[in-house]
Amino acid sequence: MEKNGSGLETELRLGLPGGTEVEKNEKKRVFEEFDDKAAVHKNQVVGWPPVAAFRRKNSFNGGKMYVKVSMDGAPFLRKVDLSMHKGYSELVTSLEDLFGCFGIGEALKEDEKNNEFVPIYEDKDGDWMLLGDVPWEMFANSCKRLRVMKRAEANGVGLHAKDLLKGLSKEE
Amino acid sequence: MCLFQSVMNYFPEEVLEHVFDFLTSHRDRNAVSLVCKSWYSVEKFSRKKVFIGNCYAVNPERLIARFPRLRSLILKGKPHFADFNLVPHDWGGHVYPWIEAMAKSRINLEELRLKRMVVSDESLKLLAKSFPNFKSLVLVSCEGFTTNGLAAIASNCKFLRELDLQENEVDDRKGHWLSCFPESCTSLVSLNFACLKGEVNAAALERLVARCRNLRSLRLNHALPLEVLQKILVQAPQLNDLGTGSFTHDPNSETFIKLKNAVKNCHSIRSLSGFLDVNGRCLPAVYPICANLTALNLSYAPGIFSNELTKLIRHCKKIERLWILDTIGDKGLGVVANTCKELQELRVFPSDLYGVGNAAVTEEGLVAISAGCPKLNSILYFCQQMTNAALITVAKNCPNFIRFRLCTLNPIVPDAATNQPLDEGFGAIVQSCKGLTRLSVSGQLTDQVFLYIGMYAEQLEMLSIAFAGDSDKGMLYVLNGCKKLKKLEIRDSPFGNMALLSDMGKYETMRSLWMSSCQVTLGACKTLAEKMPRLNVEIISENEGGAGEVEARLDDRDRVEKMYLYRTLVGPRTDAPDFVRTL
């Protein structure tokens, strides 16, 4: 497959436009070859830069990654050490323990109809992101602080457009 | 030849064996065993050290049959890209079958060195029980064991000289493994547990150090505070290699003053590492030993700021091997270039993986080093940006590179000055560095760079490619040109079936080939597997469902996400998990 200067694929094919077997596979890839330069610029490619997993876990801040967590309605904040968790489900369990409530993890599941809480985090760019979209390690390394929002307060907090739209459509 | 043969036959086997003892390199001994039957036999029974670069290329039974008197074994398991999470967790590389087989055959194992293997506690326990003369265990980037396994080693290996744990994922069970070294153990020469997360019994460690008078190398972990370090240095001023644990204290305290004095007494330290959790103001304590240091590893010490780093480095005039973080900056690298005239190996790791890159070094630092350090022959350099001009200059300054690994934080970034691909820069490197054996390329690269590599990199044994090239031609240039190529690993590059199948015999001359997120299809992999029975061609899926599901989804025209092929004498492996299919 040749690649021209602008990085677009210009492969001529016979047949109907639309999905093929090959394209089905492409969805599995975290990094779409040269289609998403933005992902590359933001270093969101799996396994890049090629720093060994052990080094990634251990050479930053002596391993500890404490971040503040705020919960809407709670009078004070807590802190949680991201390096002590291996994934989102463990983190959610810790959050539920910290604030004595259930259901924080519901927003991460496919069926979002009944979740009361929306866990979000502020990343290194200062954007507020919904928990769960990116691989765990990428999240752990870019999370500056966490917030457990009540869905009722979802408006006007600077969620990305896609999620704002989701919120709006739920409200109808 | 005939006369020589008969002359040699006058010598009894013991003499031949004695002569062969002087051959230490594996390649030399392999060559010797090909000369004639009697040399093969003598070499076979006198071979003590065996190196197996891919544990699935042979099996334990064949190893033992071939070298029944082996004493020292080096085994490597997972492919290199496993380090970067590209290989699913349970892919393989288990050491247990090897230990089990050697135990059954009563091999007199004394040394075992493993890299990227899965080591269970069960394996360690079996190892500890089965080999009464066991002396040295070195585990690098392994996983699967806990401190219970270490306890078994400590308790049972009466003559243990070396326990060296480098960058392993160890489950810390908070048992007192270190206390398991019996009072009678005085043989330790090297102890490295820097990668362990948990507490160790400081008192037990101090007693151990006090009674092991031959201890030369000691690397502590994060959990051990400065006070303990101070006491240990008082007991062991003869150390050559020291890894501090945590290195933070009030610089005005009595403990700190005692530490300074203890350090001054350590005249033999040549290698220094650690500083896990460091207060920069404590660094001056090590200044007295810097003048004689030949190796310094500060790559796990993000807490040291650039100016503190450079102050430290100014004292290190004899450094030959330096591993640091990019917090040092281009200016700091300038200081290295002016100070470290004996520098041979430099590694600059990134300190900020996902951020916008405040720190980070650029081509300037690399050029400065190449100009200032005439003995430089090995580099690993993570950088924000690079230019062809800089690489060309580096190539001119340093024709002696044997390892050159460049990693731009953005994998497809072009020349920062001209916006061109970095082909010419890397081309200059391979053309100038005639002894280059290992190369990693990055940045925006076209097929042209591979043309250069194929043309000039005659000694190249290992090549790592990511997000590079335009077409199959790129990969073909490399396969056709690099006669000594042993390991080729490629990710996210547009190389496909034509390149894969053009010279299938080539892969039998190599240890392995890794291709992920490329353009090769299942059909091509099947063809290759069918034509080359002495290769294992593995298709690795993500951990979703069993092999049946994988087969239902993929047909021959589909691209394969991950392929790993390697030459082997023993056919498809029997321990492959569901998501690995050997064609």
In short:
The complex is a heterodimer of chains A (172) and B (583). With 172 residues, chain A is of the alpha+beta class.
Give the key terms:
heterodimer; A: 172 residues; alpha+beta; 5-stranded mixed β-sheet; 6 helices; 5 strands; globular; disordered C terminus; B: 583 residues; alpha/beta; 21-stranded mixed β-sheet; two-stranded parallel sheet; F-box domain-containing protein (chain B); F-box_dom (chain B); auxin signaling pathway (chain B)
Q: What is the topological layout?
A:
The complex is a heterodimer of chains A (172) and B (583).
Chain A: H1 21-26, H2 37-41, H3 53-58, E1 66-71, E2 78-81, H4 88-99, E3 117-123, E4 128-130, H5 136-142, E5 143-150, H6 161-171
Parallel strand pairs in A: 1-5
Antiparallel strand pairs in A: 1-2, 3-4, 3-5
Chain B: H1 2-10, H2 13-21, H3 26-32, H4 37-46, E1 49-52, H5 60-66, E2 72-76, H6 96-104, E3 111-115, H7 121-130, E4 136-140, E5 143-146, H8 147-156, E6 162-166, E7 169-171, E8 190-192, H9 202-211, E9 217-219, H10 226-235, E10 241-243, E11 246-247, H11 254-264, E12 271-273, E13 276-278, H12 287-290, E14 295-297, H13 306-313, E15 321-325, H14 329-339, E16 345-349, H15 363-372, E17 378-383, H16 388-397, E18 403-408, H17 423-432, E19 438-440, H18 447-456, E20 462-466, H19 472-481, E21 487-491, H20 497-501, E22 512-516, H21 522-531, E23 535-540, H22 547-553, E24 562-567, E25 580-582
Helix pairs in contact in B: 2-4, 6-7, 7-8, 9-10, 10-11, 13-14, 14-15, 15-16, 16-17, 17-18, 18-19
What is the multimeric organization of the chains shown? heterodimer
Principal-axis shape of chain A equals globular
**Structural class determined from secondary elements of chain B:** alpha/beta
Share in β-strands of chain B:
15-25%
User: Which two chains touch over the largest interface?
Assistant: A-B, 43 and 53 residues
Task: Kindly estimate the percentage of residues of chain A that lie in beta strands according to DSSP.
Answer: 15-25%
Query: Helicity level of chain A, as a percent range?
Result: 25-40%
Provide a count of the helices of chain A. Answer: 6
Q: What is the distance, rounded to the nearest whole angstrom, between the alpha carbons of the first and last residues of chain B?
A: 45 Å
Which sequence of strands runs across the widest sheet of chain A? 2-1-5-3-4
Tally of contiguous helical segments of chain B: 22
The major beta sheet of chain B can be summarized as: 21 strands, mixed
Low-confidence stretches of chain B: none
| Overall body shape of chain B | globular
Number of strands of chain A: 5
Gyration radius of chain A (Cα, Å) is 19 Å
Main sheet attributes: strand count, strand direction, barrel closure of chain A? 5 strands, mixed
Organism (chain A): Salvia splendens (Scarlet sage)
InterPro entries (chain A): AUX/IAA_dom, AUX_IAA, PB1-like
Family (chain A): Belongs to the Aux/IAA family.
Function (chain A): Aux/IAA proteins are short-lived transcriptional factors that function as repressors of early auxin response genes at low auxin concentrations.
